[in-house]
Amino acid sequence: MAFKRWGGYCLILAVLFVSLVFSTSCSDDDTDDEPPTATATPTQTPVLTPTPTPTIAWYTYTIVHTYPHDSQAYTQGLFYHNGYLYEGTGLYGSSSLRKVALETGEIVQIYHLPSSYFGEGITLFDGRLFQLTYREETCFVYNLDDFSPIQNLSYSGEGWGLCQNGIDLIMSDGSSYITFRDPETFNINNRLQVMRAGHPQYRLNELEYIDGQLFANIWLTDQIVIIDPTSGRVQGIVDLAGLLDTVDHSSTSDVLNGIAWDPTNKRLFVTGKWWPALFEITLVRL
User: Fold this and answer.
1) For residues 128 and 140, is the Cβ–Cβ distance under 8 A?
2) What is the domain extent for residue 153?
3) Is residue 243 part of a domain?
4) Which of 18, 31, 81, 227 would you call most buried, defined as having the most Cβ atoms within 10 angstroms of its Cβ?
């Protein structure tokens, strides 16, 4: 009997010990689930600071001056250099490279591409003119002074817009990507996707590099996007709706395409395919 009684006492003590351990363990778990209260009084609500979301700046425009433009020019590329506009035009059988007097629109010099090539974006780098072709996977290189051909460079895929940042040639192909290429070899140095409010920005067309930012026409729209060339993020959108309607034009006038920048006088020029006018504008933030 004494053994059974002692055994009973042992059983009771064991049950009490296990219950105490389990109770303590549950109490610790509940404490971990509670929010910390040491840094706030009962009347204070902890404030979470949201991560800032970059906003996109919107711009409209004012017209500074309107210049004549060849309404037969299917503008694919444009830049300004030493008082003249340089323009690349497209379409099979009509593609050309031109030097144009800004004030009059007169064609001072022209080079006609073979009819089997569709000319696209152009830019100037180290005294040489570069001109893309649409689907011929060829970049023509010319001498700036007389447009004499220097060499042909090859690439894969389509060619749309072209500009340069002093180091690389920057190329678009109608997708949401821009490609940075070596001016000597045309090899790819970098490729960057352009994102607009978290979504890919497609149909990137004519390009211009302006004060560290990349401006790009969006094909089939009246918009130009301003891109951070290091991140690919769209930082601004320029809405040029109604610009062509400020001058007389035919119903055949095509879309906005063509951006040129005068770095000395800080002048911005824009035009379009078959447009009868080229506009000097200033941007106005909305």
Assistant:
1) no
2) 57-285
3) yes
4) 227
